[in-house]
Amino acid sequence: MSETQEKGAPAVVRNISDTARWAAVFRARETERPDALFRDPYAERLAGKLGVDIANTLPEGNSHAWAWVARTYLFDQFIMQEIQQGTDMVVNLAAGLDARPYRMKMPASFPWIEVDLPEILTYKEGILANETPSCKLERVRLDLSDVNARRALFADLDRRASKILVLTEGLLIYLSAEEVSALARDLAAGSHFQRWIMDLASPGLLRMMQRTTGKQLSKVGAPFKFAPAEGPAFFTPHGWEPLDVKSQLKTATKFKRPPFLLRIFGHLPEQKKPAGNHPWSGVCLFKKR
Fold first, then answer.
1. Exposed, middle or buried by CB within 10 Å (0-12, 13-18, 19+), for 239?
2. CA–CA dist 255, 5 (Å, integer)
3. pLDDT tens column, 188-214
4. CB-based burial of residue 58 (10 Å sphere; 0-12 exposed, 13-18 middle, 19+ buried)?
5. Please, what is the angle between helix 118-127 and helix 43-57, to 10°?
């Protein structure tokens, strides 16, 4: 999409892919801080004017920047940990405008697979056309709701590596519980899909989001849906066991990112049981059972 088209676009999210521009806005803002938890020099270009307009137009579109920053930071930490421990391929499902293959240091031969819809990947390729990834980047244009196509892809990737790490950042909340269960089973069917990093919300947080930002997203066919009452245990019957779970609020509080009043809650001990009706979000690392 050209810059001219961006300027003429309506200042609201148009479809689920536009949420990737929204996320890029917060990566860009964090990058500008002298104490940034990560640096994404591509985020501002990827977000574009439309991304900024989305953040400024959606109800509470800018209110929870700390949560986006904590999510990115935690994914980064888990990814590097797993690569250091022998992961030999990363598969990023619904990769959106993620720029980790460009901004993170990895071996040049390391295979990183991005999977998403054609439009968003074509847009990203245009923005990053003159940039060089640090690893062996491959993009796959595929609609993940096409079950047969994704199973064929997973089977192919399963033959190409021995310890695969899957990323689903910002994806699962837009799926139904049945769709998440099916995806989990499809991933577990591959013998070499060994780790999975995801972000999860509690039912209490989901309801809060549905009353604000979620209203606008529902209008464009991207409603918030998934927040399992069981928390990470939801995935156990489907072949995945939680290895590590990090609260986004506690992580953000550690780095003084949330507003002061929220930081008070961030210092409270975390309950062992699922959050249920309490607002909670976290990033989880799973292993294959």
1. middle
2. 38
3. 999 999 999 999 999 999 999 999 888
4. buried
5. 120
> Using CA atoms, how far apart are residues 110 and 166, in angstroms rounded to an integer?
14
pLDDT in tens, 224-247: 999 999 999 999 999 999 999 999
What CATH number should be reported for the domain holding residue 198?
3.40.50.150
Residue reference for tokens 């192919």: 156
22 in a structural domain: no
User: 20 lies in a domain?
Assistant: no
Q: Domain count of the chain?
A: 1
Q: How far apart are CA 226 and CA 201, in angstroms?
A: 8
175: phi then psi, degrees, rounded to nearest 5: -105, 160
Question: What is the Cα 198 distance to its own chain's centre?
Answer: 7
pTM over 0.90: yes
- Strand-pair partners of 242: 286
